[in-house]
Structure formats: structure tokens, C-alpha cells
Amino acid sequence: MSLSVLTDPKQRAAGQIATYYFVGRLNSVPVNDLEDSIFKESTTMTPADLKSEAVRCGKDLTEKGLAIQQMGINLMHRAKEMTDKQTAAPAVPPNTALPSDEGKPKE
Questions:
Q1: How far apart are CA 15 and CA 54, in angstroms?
Q2: Burial of 61 by CB count in 10 Å (0-12 exposed, 13-18 middle, 19+ buried)?
Q3: Domain regions of the chain by residue span
């Protein structure tokens, strides 16, 4: 409810992102129950409550965003390591005849 009255575009955008994140976490809650709960909370929260919740939720959202960024970095490193291993020349066991060594005696 409060997002609809925000005039600062940055606050509106941050609020919308937080809404998507937290609604995603509540995906298992039936829509009607969620709507009723949001409406009930919105009618009882003061401007000070909204501000403190924005700080609390913003912190949670920032932490999750940083964790997701780190996961992306880790996945890129792991993919590079896997690619490097796959493109590395296969090791040839000692005393194994290579096609160019055919007909030559083994040492």
C-alpha cells in the first residue's frame, strides 16, 4: 500500500524489488491469506514502523544480493576450472607407445 504513495523513484524501485523478493519467499502462502495479512499490517503500521521495516528488509535484501553475486563469481570460477581440465592435454602413461613411436623399441 505504501509503495503507491512514494514519490521518490529510487524508493519506489527499491520497494518494488523488495516486494518481489519477499513475495517469492511467501510463495507457499495462499494468495488470499497473503493479501489479507498485507492489508492488515498496512493499516496498523506507522510511518516510523514503515521506515524501520524498510531498513530491516533492505539489509536482508542487500545480504541476499551479495550472496547471489558471490555465488555467480564462484560458479564462473568453477566453470573455468572445469573447462581448463577438459581442454588440458590428456596425460600419457609412461612406456605407452604413441602413434609416432610405432615400430620403435620401448626403453
A1: 8
A2: middle
A3: 2-79
pTM of the predicted model over 0.70: no
Provide the terminal-to-terminal Cα distance of the chain, rounded to the nearest Å: 83
Element (H, E) at 25: helix 9-25
pLDDT digits (tens, 9 = 90+) for 29-64: 888 888 898 889 888 988 899 889 888 888 888 888
User: How many residues would you count in the chain?
Assistant: 107
Q: Which residues, at least 6 apart from 53, have a Cβ–Cβ distance to it below 8 Å?
A: 45
Amino acid sitting at position 96: T
Residues ≥6 apart with Cβ < 8 Å to 98: 92
Sign of CA dihedral 87, 88, 93, 96: positive
- As a whole number of angstroms, the distance between CA 107 and CA 21 comes to 66
